[in-house]
Amino acid sequence: MNLKNKLNIFIGDFWGGINSAIITLPQALAFGVATGFGASAGIWGAIILCFVAGLLGTKVPLVSGTTGPVAIVIAAMMTAIGFDIKAAITIMLMAGLFQILASLTNLASIVKYVPYPVISGFMNGVGIIIIILQLNPLMGHKSLSSTFDTIINLHNSFNTANIDALLIGGLTLLLVFGIPKSINKIISSQILALVICTFLSIKMGLNLDRISEVSVVFPSFVTPYIDFKHIISFIPYALTLAVVFSVESLLTGLVSDSIMKTKSNSKNILSAVGLGNVACAMTGSLGGSAATMRTVAALNSGATSKLTAIINPLILLLLLFQCSNFVAQIPLTVLAGILIKIGYDILDMKFIKVLKYAPKDDLYILFLVFFLTVFYNLIFAVGAGITLAALLYAKRVADKTRTVHKKVYDTDIMQMERTLEKDYKHKIRVVHIEGQFFFGSATQLISHFDDVLGTEYLIINYDGDDLLDISAVFALEDIIVRLKSQHINVILVSNKEVVQQLDSLSILNQIGRDNVFYDEDSAIGYAKNKLQYS
Questions:
Q1: Residue whose C-alpha is closest to residue 261's, from 453, 504, 10
Q2: Domains of the chain by start residue, with CATH
């Protein structure tokens, strides 16, 4: 690699580190306050976790820190243990060790089999929890420990609201939601809102609850509980936290791989984030996971290597030491407004927009997970969603087994496909999706389309009798996007029911209606004709 390429990579990583740090700062402060650990623990956790996980992790630039789902689980845990910081530190340490142990097994691959409606229901639930729990701080009150209590007391909270807090909190919401995307790409609306609203609150002398103190001293070693009794009682909390740490990190890895067209080592991600969480726990800082929003911001800024995850904490250190007095004056209502925007961004709008077209089974799963997440328990919600998805799928398969009789595949067509690929030197290729195309097979199927170099027209033939579930639909969309990024023309062959379903979900727009056929012969003829005149 020549000097110019190395310089371009460094510049991309540098800007990726700066932009992701600007997004991290307000979020780390807000999550630190929301969990009960404090703003200092939030910002130091972001610095330590990102540095350790970045240094020891995969080559792709994964930016780590506390995220929405992690903050909600830690906040619930803190309430359950009576805000015992030493107990919380012990639980985070155990969670990090569980992650390291999991990295030595094949447990990391399980996340690929979680149905999309379960993930969507969980993320939507977490987003709503964050929004609801920040309504009280937005009005100048202390945050309550549960969504149910917050909703019950909402009327009274509004009647006794701090007008100054409502004013600054409302301005914060106006800025984080109203700043145009063109400006937001250059500098985060959250950091702009943080600076503008804090500055105004100071100049106007408003009566507001503020962060008050942020430590710029490097965190010191914290001794966890080491007795058998405490460790045994903390195992359920630690396992829950480890699951959230791990799932969030692995999902961020999948998103990063999708954008960069790479394949990260999931075991490496788990071990690196686990070691980072151990380091956070031992210093009394707030643990977390790889953060999707910050990682995508870094990638969109040109980041391509792990150097971004090292530059990010260095920028945060600089901001912390240079701006600690200003940070101490940040009103809690401003952090609440920022968290409400984060909660909104977590909502899965992609699925929400197609809810009326989604199969009923997917809706049952999504709403079960959503309501259990918001009003009961996050991990129980995910477990219940996976269980329901498995039961509903088993029912569908059982029903089909009694009624469906598929014809044996035509050997003449198989011979024609072999001849086609040989004569056209694989410029035209036919791929069959056979059997059940559902959440369990969708993720695996994507990997089969990673290497079709030399192909100009790829015919995807799905001749199954079943409609696709939402996971399979989005997997098919991912396949189409990947192929098009390789300049491969996609042609789809399927039955009318599946084509109508894909049309209602706007997937056909990705392919082009001229590239959709109901029989393979017509699709092959179309590809031959296109290739001849291209």
A1: 453
A2: 3-351 (no CATH), 411-532 (3.30.750.24)
In the chain, % helix, strand, coil (3-state, to 5) comes to: 70, 5, 25
- Burial group, residue 238, by CB count within 10 angstroms (0-12, 13-18, 19+): buried
Q: Does the pLDDT at position 311 exceed 80? A: yes
User: What integer is the mean pLDDT of 359-376?
Assistant: 89
Cα-based distances in Å from 152 to 78, 112, 386: 22, 38, 31
pLDDT at 339 over 50: yes
The three-state (H, E, C) secondary structure of 238-305, written as one string: HHHHHHHHHHHHHHHHHHHHHHHCCCCCHHHHHHHHHHHHHHHHHCCCCCCEECHHHHHHHHHCCCCC
DSSP assignment letter at 467 = P
pTM value is 0.73
Rounded distance, CA 339 to CA 358, Å? 30
Q: How confident is the model at residue 92 (pLDDT cuts 50, 70, 90)?
A: very high
User: How do strand 516-517 and strand 489-493 relate by DSSP bridges?
Assistant: parallel
Q: Residue 87 is encoded by which pair of tokens?
A: 């107990």
Token digits of residue 95: 């969670």
Report angle CA 280, 138, 186 to the nearest 5 degrees. 65
Tracing tokens 């109901």 back to the chain, one arrives at 518
How would you class 284 by CB atoms within 10 Å of its CB: exposed for 0-12, middle for 13-18, buried for 19 or more? buried
Distance CA 336, CA 482 (A): 38
Torsion of CA 246, 19, 116, 480, to 10 degrees: -130
Which ranges of 36-115 does DSSP label H, i.e. alpha helix?
Answer: 39-56, 68-80, 85-103
Q: What is the DSSP letter of 490?
A: E
Residues ≥6 apart with Cβ < 8 Å to 403: none
Q: How many Cβ atoms from other residues are within 10 Å of residue 352's Cβ?
A: 12
191 has a pLDDT exceeding 80: yes
